[in-house]
Every structure is written in structure tokens, then in C-alpha cells.
Amino acid sequence: MDTIIQILARELGRSEAHVENVVRLIDEGNTIPFIARYRKELHGAMDDTALRTLADRLQYLRNLDKRREEVKSAIEGQGKLTEELSAAIDAAATLAEVEDLYRPYKQKRRTRATVAREKGLEPLAELLFAQAADGPAPEEAAGAFIDPEKGVATAEDALQGASDIIAERISDDADIRKRLRELVWKKGSLVSAAAAKEPEDTVYRLYYAFRSPLNRVQGHQVLAINRGEREGVLKVSVEMEREAALIPVRRAVLNPGAPAMAFVRAAAEDAYDRLIFPSVEREMRGLLTEQADEGAIKMFGLNLKPLLMQPPVKGFVTMGLDPGYRNGCKVAVVDATGKVLDTAVVYPTFSQRKKEEAIDALAKLIRRHGVAHIAIGNGTASRETEQMTVELIRRLGGGVSYMIVNEAGASVYSASKLAAEEFPDYDVNLRSAVSIARRLQDPLAELVKIDPKSIGVGQYQHDMPQARLDETLSGVVEDCVNAVGVDLNTASAPLLSYVAGLNNTTARNIVKYREENGAFTTRKGVLKVPKLGPKAFEQCAGFLRVPESRNVLDHTGVHPESYGAAEALLTLCGYGLSDVKAGGLDGLRERVAAYGEEKAAEACGVGVPTLRDIVGELMKPGRDPRDELPRPILRTDVLEMKDLKPGMELTGTVRNVIDFGVFVDIGVHQDGLVHISQLREGRRVQHPSEVCAVGDIVTVWVLEVDEKKKRISLTMKKPKGGAV
Length: 724
Hints:
With 724 residues, the protein is of the alpha/beta class. 49% of the residues lie in helices and 11% in strands.
């Protein structure tokens, strides 16, 4: 039997040595971001996604090993563990296979077979199931087991009991179950129908007469069908041609020509109809749901990452507008660092007079504070607020731009304990305006304050296994935060809590220590924070930035353990730390190449991957990887749905990626859909994530506009000859 290391190496296409190193590092309490960034030599430069996949699979395989031992121990306790059975359990590749093998020995609730055994009918069942060529006919054999005192009044009673025992025995056969499971997966269908005779036109209308092979049904279809079933709109089943399914069952248990064959055949069919197929159907539904959940969770993570990594619009005073009707439009002006300068409430939707008053009030705020950008939440009354903003910019004579910001989760944040601690003097609505402004300035720093599930870049998130969803999304946030790095002297506690090696307690302790003792002047200063020990420092140090430090390396991604190597490299290439601070290392890569990478790495006492990372950090101290991405689209004019015409070329921002396409913000209140079939010319797209990610700036062409249904169909295929 292969070891866990061998299985992981084979599945992931990695060397056993690298996998073994990663497993050891995980077991030593190292975090995934730390392993990914600072232990590249040990794992062959796996990225954080590959490492998390490995960690997940490692956990599954260890749970499988644990369950194998539990099952073997339980069977051994019954005195029924044979060498053959033990070997079969050890060879089982999944938890389902282990449970199949355990099924005959598992303590069962009272069943028809249990009752039959209590009546002393097991010997009859054994006799008939053996199907000896010279064995007795079932009716003849049953006569000896008639016992009215035990509730066996007739031969038919005896035969019914024996049939129940045989049916359960066949149902408990691990090999039969495995074959049927594989057959149903290959040949079975998922079927859904309307629960009502005359169904209403609902979002589930596509599934009122739906049929798909099990192994080809899409994850989003499974999730929609499951929800429709829970809401009582749909009836759902797994269908399989009965005769085709019975063939492997019959082959496994029948002895042609035996007097008892027909009897066993009937028992086998009963086992299939009553016990096996209902169980396999549940398993298939469970498997489909599990796969759909995993796919949706993965998609959620894929969408969340680029959203968090959107380029910040730094260094500008920003106005946040949280639109609304009855309670007005909430306004917050924040400075370049996110500090609140001013707040207001205006009522542009009440009347023309109120709209004029709103424009005047906002214009005064813009002039007073030097506002450069306006962030508008995309919720209720967003359209009207956008139109007012365009009019406002025109009256100012330009110089200000705006952007529609996805406000998903802003209300969740504004009503949270954290928001109350941050802004105790502001009401809930004003807090959300601050959050919207800051989302434009630094999406990552603001979005980490919100439960990732509330950010709204997935489907069916409330139907997912919440623990698994939380684990995955937290991992994505953690990877993003650590990829960017965190300013130790300005970061909030929620942002710090995602830094490798830190948790909510140590993050809060850092902020408290900073407030009481002033700004940190070195990375090592963080060791003075209560409950932050050497191991936590090892994990977090490389991801913390201290711009105020005299040592410029404290403002880079170079880990303190490699400061000596960095300084040795600088000396080797004729530079010093002052050159790093002055940004005068343009020729560093060329000098390293001339010296020889491997030779330089050896001279500095590090591996080549670490050397390359050090070079990159020294050349761009304080580098923010988000700055290298395309800038977000800032607008100065409004586009309405009625302005759209087929063939029109537009630039937009990808807002969401789902299984059947992508939604693109083209500056109209309603996002347009690019169906998967319209994503790329030529080669078929398997999944939209192959082509786009959330936050991507894309060129699209209008296919169709349905103002009544508020639907915009777009294409990313460039039209030929100017027509779509």
C-alpha cells in the first residue's frame, strides 16, 4: 500500500521529497503563506493554492487512515477480522469504500432481516443462498423452520424471513455496491420536475422538465435543483434503467441451474429495489452536491482573490456616497489615508429643489477638501445618485471623476461591532459611506473587515457547507493580505489578523501596543507585543512593513532571517543599503547574472529561489503587487440603458464570474452578461474563469438590450465587418 507521501506526490505531480518537506513544515506549525514565500527551496516553489490543495488532501488521507484503524478495531472486537478483510480495508481508497466494507459488521437498527434472524431463520437463508446444485427446493427446505411460537406459522413466513436476510446480505456486499455505484454514475440520470400540476413561472422554470446524465450535470444546475427541491417547487430523483442495474447484481450472487436460484434472484431484486438503489441514489445526490459545493466554493475563491487584489486608488481625497431614497444619500469625505474629514446627508431623490441643494452641498465639500474621486455604492437609488454626480462634475467644470463601487457587505460592516468601535459617533448609514469611500482607496484593507461570504462574488453561498466555505475564503483573504504586505503602523486589527502567524488576539494586542507606545520603529519591535512569541514572529515578520524603520529592509518582503544574505548580496554586487533606499539598484539583476545566480546564492548562504526574491524586493522596496495591475475605470459621464445599441463597443469591469458566463459593469446601472459561448473566438471555453477574473478590464460589444426585462447581452468576440 502506498504511503500518504507517495499518494500526494502522485496526485499533485510533485516529487516525494518536496511533498515530505511540506508535510513536515505543516506539522511544525508553519503557515501556508510563510511556507509558500520563505521555504521555496524545500518545496520546489509551489504557490499558495497548490500548498492549500496539498494540506486539504493531507487532512483527508489522514482522516481516512484514522477511520481504517477505527473500523478494523471495531470488527476485531467482534472477533471477525480476517487477514483478507484487513487487507481490503487498507486498500480502500475512499471513506465510502471503507464504510462499505464495514457495513456488514456495523450495529444496525432493527430491520426485517434482524427480526428474521431472531426467529431462527438464518440457517435457512444460508442454505438457500448457497444454491447447491443438489440442494432442496425452497418450499421443501422451509418446512423444517415452521415454528408458530417464534412467529413462523407457514413455509411462506419462513421463506419471507430468509429472503429478507439474503436481501440484506446482498445489500451489504461491498463489491456489489462499488460496481453499482460506478454503473449508476456512468449510466444514471438526474431528473427534476415541477412539484405542482400547473406550476407558476418561477426562477426554476428551466428545471420543470429537466434530465441530465449524472456525470455531465453542471454544478450550478445541481445547486439550483437542490434549492428548488427545498422550497417545494421541484421533485427530484435519480433514474437508472432497472434491468441494466440488476445485471451485475445477478452475476454476483446467482448460481444458474440451482433449485434455489429463482428464490435468490427474487431476493436480489428486492435488495436492489428496497435497499441498494435508494441508498445509491442518496449517495449520488450527496456526491453531486459535494462536487457542486466544492466547485462553487472554488469559484467563490477565484472571484474573491482578484476583487481583494484590485489596484488601490491611493493618495487622493475621496468622497463616498451611500445612495438611498427615504433616508437620503449618506456622504463621507476621507483623506488620502482613509481618515474621515467630513460627513453629510443629502436628499437628491426627493424633488428637483432637494437635488439642487444636494449638488450645492456636495460641491462645497469637494472644494473645501480637494476631493479628487467619488465612490458611489451600487445599491438602492444608485442610478439617480450617479446622474446627480455627473451633473455635479459638469457644474464643477471637471477635475473630479467617479466610480460605481460594489457595496456588497457594506451594510453588514456598518452594523458590526467593529464599525461601532471604529466610528462610535456615527450612525450606521454614515459608516457605510465611509466604507464605500475606502473601498476605492484600498479595497483589500476595507474588505477584510467584512465576512467574505457577504462580499457577493459567488452563487448560492448560503447553501454551501459553511465551515468549508469559511475555511476556503479565509485562506484566500490570508493569501492576498500576505502577498501585499501590511504596514505595521497603520493596519487595522482585522487586516493584521490575516497576517501569517497572527490571530485576532495578537492583532488587537499590536494595535493596543501601538496606541500606548507610539509607532513601531523596527520589525523586531513587534516581539514586545504581549502573546506574540518567536514562532509567531518567524511566521509574520516577512509580511509586516515598517516604513519608519532606519533599516530599509524592514520595508521590504525580505525576511529578517535573510537580512545577512541580502547585505552580502549587496556587497557582492558593489551596492549598499543606502542604494536600496535611494532606489538605485537598476543594474542589480545584470550584476547577479554576470556573477552567476547559483554562485551568488551559495556565496550568500541561500537557495536560488530565495536569492531571486531578495533581488526583486531590493529593487522595489515597499512594492505593492497591486500597482502592476490595470487601473480601475473612473468615469465622468453617465450611460443609460436606452443609449445602448447592438454593435456598440464598450470598456467594462468584470463584476462576477459564474459557471455560465461573466457579468460586466459597462457604466450602466444593470450589469451585462457575456455568455460562456461569447467569451472567445475559436476554441471552446470549458469555464469562464479560463478567460476572465473579477476586476479585469475588458472590451465588449453589445449583442442585445431588453429594457423591459433589464437584460443586456454582451460579447467579447470582435464583430466582423462592424456588425454583431
